[in-house]
Write the structure tokens for this entry.
Amino acid sequence: MFQATHGAAAVTECVSKTPLMTDLYQLTMMQTYLARGMTERAVFEFFVRSLPAERRFLLSAGLEQVVEFLASLHFEDDELTWLEREGHADSRLIDYLAQVHFTGDIDAMPEGTVFFPDEPILRITAPLPLAQLVESRVLSLLHFATLIASKAARVRLAAEDRLLVDFGMRRAHGSEAGVLAARSAYLAGFDGTATVLAGKSFGIPLFGTMAHSFVIAHEREMDAFETYARNHPDNTVLLIDSYDTLEGARKAVRLAERLRGSGIRIRGVRLDSGDLATLSRGVRDILDAGGLGDATVFASGNLDEHAIRALLAKGAPIDGFGVGTRMDVSADAPYLDCAYKLQEYAGQARRKRAEGKTTWPGRKQVYRHYSADGRMAGDCLTLEDDPQQGEPLLRPVMREGRLLAPLPTLADAREHTQAQLERLTQTLRELTPGPSDYPVDISPALSELVRTLDSAA
């Protein structure tokens, strides 16, 4: 694949920063809180209630975007004017919003951490109106990033060490989604993306070759190939399935002979349609027989972890994959049953008891245990002030609105993700639907808090 150069991560231009990216009921609740003087500290936690049938684990993502959103939280004058004019906020709320900025605390699992149902991956502690205001945007950012990272991690497990490139921006549900999906995929182990803004915003390596339109625009397929090769002599990868795939491979071989005197080498070919297992074998044979044994075969076209695993099980000689639509919309599990719930207010634990949506109350921590071979062996969900043996997964990130330390770079978060995936058990690595059988124990202290709150209700 053609790989463009890239620089250090720049400003994230793709992500909306306005606090109007919220639900109206956040403002109506805030207005009532202020009227009643309910401004004491509240604790909210983000967690997933249950795993989709197609998932055995989830991968936390989106913390960087949440921190950026909270760190820049403020209302512009025209936003306040609009809220007041439209009757969505009274004068007391307008005055509050005019001065608002994030003054709370954040504790979170590092991005790329494997987690399971009921385990909070982020906790916000802040005055109740402020913690309520940010709910919708925080939930949106964490949900989408985690959804795509969890899907992309499965693709990486299926592809093993082969090249993986995100191709999904054009089919994502909006431009922001396309760029953030590229980030989540890279976090989970993809090698790069075709989305240019993701390269600029996050320093993700960019990959790309040509479309079928480029080939069809030329009178002859060979003309398209040669024109491209001479304009991109250092990264000549040819899309060979616009007409006859095997004949396209033969033309690549003939062109290689013609280009050899100019010092141009054909680095690979791409297949985007048809029976990829059969075609890749035929193409590989043609390339090898024609002296292009070092040219790679790259495949794309409606792929996901299941398609990739099936291709490799058939022995398809494919060196890399472009994965788009099915990953960027997480086609087999397009949403997570996630929540951002109040767990404590004014120093008192709170618990929702609605049928099917009960919560574990209080400020919580997750401790992880490992087996002798370093694999994940089980977690314990407990209260923050109830230390357990094992590795605590939630770590302090912000205090009183200030970062305690710079967040890990995306490259460092990627390394953490890889280490997490290497510690998965064989059962968790399975791609077929089924229970994860991963134990998450509830501590006696948390169970006792539940009994106390329920008996007092």
Remarks:
- Residues 363 and 384 are 5 Å apart (CA to CA).
- The chain has two domains: 16-148+333-456, 160-328.
- The mean pLDDT is 95.
